[in-house]
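User: Predict the structure for this protein chain, please.
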Amino acid sequence: MGSLPLTAHGRLRPGRFELPGNVSSQYITGLMLAAPLLDGASEILVHGRIESRPYVNLTVQALASFGVKVEEERGELDGEEATLFRIGGLYRTSGEVTVEGDWSNAAFWLCAGAMGEHRITVEGVSPTSFQGDRTVLAVLSRFGARVGRATAFATVQPDRLRAFDMSARDIPDLVPVITAVASVAAGTMRISDCGRLRLKESDRLKTVARGLTNLGAKIEVRRDDLLIEGVEELGAGAVDAAGDHRIAMMAAVAATRATGPVRIEGAEAVAKSYPAFFDHYRLLGGEVELSD
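Assistant: Here is the predicted structure, written as structure tokens:
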């Protein structure tokens, strides 16, 4: 008990599923995707506030395009917020679906545009997307970067960056690269509500702070918050990606403001979500040397 290997057996059955909302939106979205395949109607009752809510909204939108309707009812249960989702209908083909560009990966280039010396434009991203990470444009605008957007692209130009305080409750995946930007912004920034970062591919509170500190950043972990005091420039150093794709990409973006080379240990972790990351890094003028 309490250790691997884990053995699962049996079949998922229709009915009411109850789970907390403060652990991961992926549990909710996974059940939503499975429910139309079950032999009967299903409900999902979520206790408490739903973390990373935009991902749930995105799943509801995707299900609707395949003929599955999700009804939502909000209220209180035992004195706390509760949300009930009712999933109805069977999957049917929608004929043709256009997959949106990925704001989570686009964010790394847009943040590089804010930190570096030249404008960067990312094509194929929708400003009206349900993806929560499109918030990166609003975040960079608050930093003071010059932001532009249109129907299918976004542009960020560097400018004087200034720190501010923000919550990461709905955008946890943006925290690593936003912290890199904050590391070279004037002033001190607090990023709060970061507790869920401890449950990612690495404990991102630790790996973000440790990795950027190795490059000369001034970062302190205070419970579930990150406190970042901006510095003028980062320096050469080594960052352990700890098997985490977003830590590896964060370090590469931070290198755009480093006075010397940055060594990323375990850089192959980018293959999880963005295998071509370093190829695109080179296309934008970055220098990359890969070694075993």
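The radius of gyration is 21 Å.
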